[in-house]
Amino acid sequence: MVWVRVVDIVSNHTRRQLLKATGIAGAAGITGLAGCSGGGSGSGNGPTSIGAGIASASTTTGQASNAFQRVVKEQSPDTEPAGTIQWASQETGGDPASLRQYNQGNLRAMGAGNFVMASAMQDAPPFSENPVESVPHQAFKIVSIHLHIVAVDGSGIETSDDLIGKNFWALPPSWGLRQQAETVFENAGMWEDLEPNVVDADIGDVAGAVEEGRVDALIAYGSGFDSLPGWATEVDARADLHVVQPSDQLQQGIEQTRGTNYREIDVYGWNQDMGADTVGTFPSDFQFFFGSDISRDVGYELAKISHENVDAIQESQSAYADHSDPEAMASAYLDDFPVHPGVYDFLEEQDVDLADYERGSVEA
Q1: Residues 337, 340, 345, 346, Cα dihedral to 10°
Q2: Is the predicted pLDDT of residue 44 greater than 80, yes or no?
Q3: Comparing 4-13, 67-76, 79-88, 294-303, which segment has the lowest mean pLDDT?
Q4: Domain-by-domain residue ranges, the chain?
Q5: Where on the phi/psi map is residue 10: left (φ > 0), alpha (ψ -120 to 50), or beta?
Q6: Rounded distance, CA 160 to CA 246, Å?
Q7: DSSP string of 226-288?
Q8: Phi, psi of 220 (to 5 degrees)
Q9: Is there a shared CATH topology between the 6-143+286-349 domain and the 145-285 domain?
């Protein structure tokens, strides 16, 4: 596949016009086009303010963004020539919503799952009916999470086949992870049977729903082989649970889903006996993504700050990827998807092999 740097060709066309003009289909047709308002770009015009979309402060990526925000605040006065950088996490309700806010000019960066970004590139759900015009550049990995199913003790649920007819919480509808879970179950031929009993609730309400008997099973996740998100620790504290093993049918659905694979791992994060030592999961990688209106110098300094201060970031979010190894920063990159030029240059200086990835462009 030949990559065309659409941002070098034109800046004011819609994504549809660009695809038509270049004759490119699929992933190669989108690059980071959006220019978001708020603050300078890091080119000598004062402080650079970056609104970064997160689903919620109690999610793993939200906690990671807030931890990064604190460290950027401490370190950015010393960055030259980028100047002072202000990173501000903004809750949107989910990474699909963050991407739409980015396209509306309300965000300049975001934490998002690779599944969501790949879906946007392909006009796949949740973007099939209302595609986005542009996507930001890849920056660096935040965390890998391991999605798995747990059930309430006494529910009679031991494997995923037992979920049919049970009240099942499949993550909030606004999340990209919810769409990923739906896709997994659709590929397994199970979603149509599960959907009538799916309970839609926000993460702030799920622990109460489990405790009150309104939810029999749920999708949860651990992060970085380290911990659970805040909402899951609340569920852990308020209910007796056990892990649910995926059936062969669900395992096949996982393997047929873009951006994930079936993986059996040791159970971790739960503060109770989960009834088994291992559990079948479908992992998902999350990254920070930077808009093309964030200058090369600012992107470079943000990557440098994360690399040099990862211990301080991990004090607040222990599952944050170990960026003391710069290879880890690039370990979740998607193919055919530009990397922010500042991050690209920093990683190249750290001898990370980026030959398979495109160096993105920024707005003048």
Answers
A1: -110
A2: no
A3: 4-13
A4: 6-143+286-349, 145-285
A5: beta
A6: 5
A7: TB--HHHHHHHHHS-EEEEBPPHHHHHHHHTSTT---EEEE--S-SS--S-SEEEEEEEEEEE
A8: -130, 180
A9: yes
C-alpha–C-alpha distance, residues 364 and 63, integer Å: 32
Report the distance separating Cα 362 and Cα 364, nearest Å.
6
Question: What is the three-class DSSP state of 208?
Answer: helix
| SS3 category, 143 | strand
Enumerate residues 6+ apart whose C-beta is below 8 A from 289: 109, 110, 111, 112, 117, 135, 136, 137, 138, 139
The DSSP code for 47 is: -
pLDDT tier, 41 (very low <50, low <70, confident <90, very high otherwise): low
Asked whether the beta carbons of 47 and 302 are under 8 A apart, the reply is no
Amino acid found at 217: A
The CATH code that applies to domain 6-143+286-349 is: 3.40.190.10
As a whole number of angstroms, the longest Cα–Cα distance in the chain is 63
* Tokens matching residue 51: 């609104």
- Please list, in sequence order, all residues whose beta carbon lies within 8 angstroms of the beta carbon of residue 128, skipping any fewer than 6 positions away: none
Measure CA of the first residue to CA of the last residue in the chain; give whole Å.
27
C-alpha to C-alpha distance for 204 and 200, rounded to whole angstroms: 12
pLDDT in tens, 271-313: 999 999 999 999 999 999 999 999 999 999 999 999 999 999 9
- CA 90, CA 9: separation in Å to the nearest integer? 31
CA distance 263 to 283: 7
Asked if residue 152 lies in contact with residue 216, where contact means CB atoms within 8 angstroms, the answer is yes
Specify the amino acid at residue 180. Answer: Q
* Cis preceding-peptide flag for 196 (omega within 30 of 0): no
**Length of the chain in residues, anyone?**
364
May I ask the CATH class of domain 145-285? alpha beta
| Ordered DSSP codes for 66-113 | HHHHHHHHHHGGG-TTT--EEEEEEE-SSHHHHHHHHHTTS-SEEEEE
Angle (CA) 71 50 202, round 5°: 85
